[in-house]
Amino acid sequence: MAVVGLMNSLKQEGAKYGILVNTIAPVAATRMTEALLPPQLLPHLKPEYVSQAVAYLCSETCTATGDIISAGAGFYAKMTALLTVEGEKDDISGIGQTAAAHDICPNIPNRMRQHHLQAGVGHYGVFNGRRWREEIAPKVTA
After folding, report:
1. Whether pLDDT at 89 is above 90
2. Does 107 or 6 have the greater pLDDT score?
3. Is residue 71 domain-shared with residue 119, that is, in the same domain?
4. Exposed, middle or buried: residue 80 (CB in 10 Å: 0-12, 13-18, 19+)?
5. Beta strands in 1-142 (DSSP E)
6. Measuring CA to CA, how many Å separate 82 from each of 29, 50, 101, 107, 129?
7. What pTM was computed for the model?
8. Could you tell me if 54 and 105 lie in one domain?
9. From residue 63, how far is each of 39, 56, 59, 72 by CA, in Å?
10. Fewest C-beta atoms under 10 Å: which of 61, 70, 87, 134?
11. How far is Cα 133 from Cα 115, in angstroms, rounded to an integer?
């Protein structure tokens, strides 16, 4: 999280000069990670698969600033720092209980927060069944 704090400070300072600042969260096979990852996974996690995201962020076409980009195995995703999900009919944790996390994390910028209230599901349906697969999971994995 220190890198994210540094990114946010540099973003604020650089804004007046038109400087854009982002952070890469890489997943790559390196000497440091090769002992931690399964051997069959290593060929898919070449560092050059991360460098494409770096090249884009350094390009003139990139207008993003303050984003955290997860990059690895040729896949890229903009990360959300805080995502909360609730079910409309949840009888175990009432509406607003998980959304309260947004109130206790005031330093997370609004653009890095998401809250999803799923209509028509109870506690079990938030993470299981058709609505999970079709409506909630795509938001969690985006």
Report:
1. yes
2. 6
3. no
4. middle
5. 23-26, 68-72, 75-78, 82-87, 113-118
6. 27, 24, 8, 11, 23
7. 0.61
8. no
9. 37, 10, 9, 21
10. 61
11. 17
Half-sphere exposure of 139 (CA within 13 A, CB side): 18
pLDDT at 78 over 70: yes
Return the number of other C-beta atoms located less than 10 Å from residue 90's C-beta: 19
Overall average pLDDT of the 59-76 stretch: 91
- Cβ(62)–Cβ(56) under 8 Å? yes
Residues 6+ apart with CB under 8 A from 122: 87, 89, 90, 91
The total of structural domains in the chain comes to 2
Strand partners, 118: 87
Angstrom distance (rounded) from CA 131 to CA 38: 33
Q: Where are the alpha helices (DSSP H) in the chain?
A: 2-15, 48-57, 100-103, 130-131, 137-141
Boundary (domain end) residue, out of 78, 93, 123: 78
Q: Look up tokens 């985006």; give the residue.
A: 142
Which residue range(s) make up the domain with 124? 82-141
